[in-house]
Amino acid sequence: MPNATTPIHKPGFFNWVDVATTDTAAGKDFYHKLFGWTSQDIPTGPDSVYTMLSLDGNLAGALHKLDPERQKHGVPPHWLLYVASDNCDETVARIKANGGAIRAEPFEVMDAGRMAV
User: What is the maximal distance between C-alpha atoms in the chain?
Assistant: First the structure.
């Protein structure tokens, strides 16, 4: 797997991936065996953990538990790909103006910036 040698936050380019799964322990084991990824759990709430996945010390993505509300509505485990934007709010406005659907309005992601779905 190649390592990025330049910043990957150029607008319009994929810049992050994570997987929502119903079994985080099995997910970590699977991706460790498949890609050699190591994991570091970061508590994000009382019952919430975001697991950073790395290869040779370089971040590769993340893994987290698919929340019960989404499971209740039949949402299966899935990968989510993130696309960089210069301005999240303006991008959401353009998406709406062109008939796109927003599932989650822009919000702050700790100290990482803003995102929307």
Answer: 44
Asked whether the beta carbons of 42 and 50 are under 8 A apart, the reply is yes
Residue 95 near residue 40 (C-beta atoms within 8 A) = no
Q: How far apart are CA 35 and CA 54, in angstroms?
A: 10
Shortest CA distance to 25 belongs to which of 59, 62, 63, 54? 63
- Residue 50, beta-bridge partner list: 42, 64
Q: What is the mean pLDDT of the chain?
A: 91
Tokens 């702050």, residue located: 108
Q: Which of 12, 19, 110, 88 is nearest to 60 (CA)?
A: 19
Contacts of 96 (CB under 8 A, 6+ apart): 102
| 2-30 pLDDT tens trace | 565 555 678 998 888 999 999 999 999 99
Cα–Cα nearest to 63, from 30, 26, 23, 18: 18
Token pair for 86: 């210069």
Residue 115 clears pLDDT 70, i.e. is over it = yes
